[in-house]
Every structure is written in structure tokens, then in C-alpha cells.
């Protein structure tokens, strides 16, 4: 599902730039509207996209391409004789770009707000400033695929899950030697594999599973017993830490609130 999302995301970027390059715009006003609409579309796409392949640094190239194409078209139009206003049906793609871009941007904003209902505060389970980031999180489907509950997608108990990842020096989520592979199979080929995981809250450990084999990346296991995990009880809420490395979980009593368990 993630790979399909990445393909669609990159395809939409290419379509937007192609439309910016060739869509009819006979006057400066219509061209300005086209440039603005494509800009809104790309900003909206950036707000909901999973920038793993290409990585987030690709947005710099995307911005430069957008500016270059817009400047080229503006300069070309300035050298030609002004035409009549564009026909109404030729403006339809511009309107659709602006509308869909606005919808995606609003979705990205709403999906990052705290949802209604009772919540608890959790700390990040990884050290800050070391390349860790959220892969799937938020309270809308476009940001968090766990909201799509089905036989081949998330299970009901995963609805509020958050997936974390780590990026390497090049901005990819895999190890450096696997940077150009968007979805390796072996867990060890991901930059996050083997990294320490800390408890996100101070609570009581109520369940530990430490003996399950490491599943291939992307392997769908709908059985909760198939994952190495630790379950904590924090403020009356069960907090799950899952997809842990086999035989890596050990518990320790600490005096600070940073961690109550660790998984390598």
C-alpha cells in the first residue's frame, strides 16, 4: 500500500508540472492563475505526502522546477502578442488544480490537530534530532493508513497506531547501501532496525512478547500474537510498542521518566 501511495504521489507531481508547462494560458491573468493553482496543488500534496522516495530533500528540486517553468512561461508570454481571454473550458483544469490542492492542504492541517475525545500525552519513543520521524500518523486516512480497516489493511485495534521510521544521511529510510531501493524486504536493510526504543510514558508493564521471528518488511500479519511487543498501562490506557526486534526486549527500573524499557 505504501509503495502504491509513493507511485501515485510522484505521478501527481509530474502531472502538475506538465500542466504548468503546456496548459493553455493566453493572458498574464490566466497564466498567473495557472501558476498559483499549480502552486497550491503542490503545497497540498506536500502536506499529505510520504516523502520517503524520493526523500524530503526532493521538495527543494520540486520548488526549483516549479519556479523555472513558471518563469519560462511568463517570459515567453511577455514576448508574444497578448491573446484573448482563455475559453471557459480551458480554465477547468486550473480550477480543479486549485480545488484539489486546497482540499489536500486542509486535510493535512486537520489531520495534524488533536482529535476529539479523551487523550493522553506520550513522549517520542526515540531520541530527538537523530533522523527519526513519523511515517504514518494523524487522525485522517490520507496521513494515517491505519484508519483504513479491512482484511488486507489495518485491524481495528491498529486504528490509532503511529508508524515511525528513520532516515539515513541521504534522506532515505533504508541503510545507505540500499538508498535507491524504495522497499527492501529484509528488516536489517532499514535504518531504524536495531535502534533503541524507549517507553513513551511512565506506567506498568502488563505484557511482553519477545520470541517472535522478524517478519519481512511489508508482511501483513493481522494476528496480534505475531509481533514482538511490550504493552504498558499508562493513566488507565494500554499503550502498545510493537514490531520490535526478536529477543531485543529487556526491562529496567529507572529513576528518570525517560524510559521504563528498552528494545534494541
Describe this structure in words.
The chain is α+β, with helices and mostly antiparallel strands and 264 residues long. Helices cover 31% and strands 13% of the residues. It has four helices and eight strands. Strands 3-8-7 form a three-stranded antiparallel sheet, with no helix packed on it. A three-stranded antiparallel sheet has the order 4-5-6, with no helix packed on it. Strand 5 and strand 6 form a beta hairpin. Helix 1 (2-22) runs parallel beside helix 3 (58-78) and helix 2 packs parallel to helix 4. The longest helix has 21 residues, at 2-22. It starts with a helix and ends with a strand.
| Terminal CA distance | 27 Å
User: How much helix is in the residues?
Assistant: 25-40%
Q: Biggest sheet, open or closed, and with what strands and sense? A: 3 strands, antiparallel
Order of helices and strands: HHHHEEEEEEEE
Number of helices: 4
| Rg measurement, Å | 23 Å
Q: Which sequence of strands runs across the widest sheet?
A: 3-8-7
Number of strands: 8
Unreliable stretches (pLDDT < 50, length at least 5) are 254-260
Portion in beta strands: 5-15%
Q: Would you tell me the structural class of the helices and strands?
A: alpha+beta
Please tell me the overall pLDDT: 84
Which term fits the overall shape? elongated
Features:
264 residues; alpha+beta; three-stranded antiparallel beta sheet; 8 strands; 31% helix; 13% strand; elongated
